Amino acid sequence: MSTTGKKHIKTQSTYAFESNTSNVAASQMRNALNKLADSVKDDDDKRFKFENELDSFFTLFRRYLIEKSSKDNTLDWDRIKSPGSEEVLRYETISDSKAEDVSTLSKLAVLKLNGGLGTSMGCVGPKSVIEVRDGNSFLDLSVRQIESLNRKYDSDVPLLLMNSFNTDKDTEHLIKKYSANRIRIRSFNQSKYPRVFKDSLLPVPTDYNDPLDCWYPPGHGDLFESLLSSGELDALIAQGREILFVSNGDNLGATVDLKILNHMIETNAEYIMELTDKTRADVKGGTLINYDGQVRLLEVAQVPKEHIDEFKNIRKFTNFNTNNLWINLRAVKRLLEQGSIEMEIIPNQKTISRGGHDINVLQLETACGSAIRHFNGAHGVVVPRSRFLPVKTCSDLLMVKSDLFYLQHGALKLDPSRFGPNPLIKLGSHFKKVSNFSERIPHIPKIIELDHLTITGNVFLGKDITLKGTVIIVCSDGQKIDIPNGSVLENVVITGNLQILEH
Question: Selecting from 3.10.180.10, 1.25.10.10, 2.160.10.10, 3.40.718.10, what CATH number does the domain 394-502 have?
Answer without folding.
Answer: 2.160.10.10
